[in-house]
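Study the following:
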Amino acid sequence: MTMGSHENKRKTDRSHAVKPSRIQLKGKEYRLNDISDGGVGIIVDGPDTFFPGQRIDAIPLELNDGTIHLKGFVAHISKTESHYICGIRFILDGIEEYKSVAQFKKERTPTK
């Protein structure tokens, strides 16, 4: 079940094979479920934690060499068999932010 206007058509590859990671949003820590070049999926307590379209102005991504702060918005809230996933799409402004997201993804995706 999907709440919001989430579509199955993806513009970027999503990796579910992520190393255990957490992201702090709005004063609370959330476990990372998946990552793509365009955003992240986090595990949330329920469907009311965030709402589709909600803007998030502070998304800190911890990199090996520092922290970057991005902006984004909630793309969807989806229920799986065991939990809720909040999909957050990044609003990237410039090549440096794209590079930082790629670095974050690389640091959290196991090498083959």
User: Anything to note?
Assistant: The longest strand covers residues 66-79. Residues 95-108 form the longest helix (14 residues).
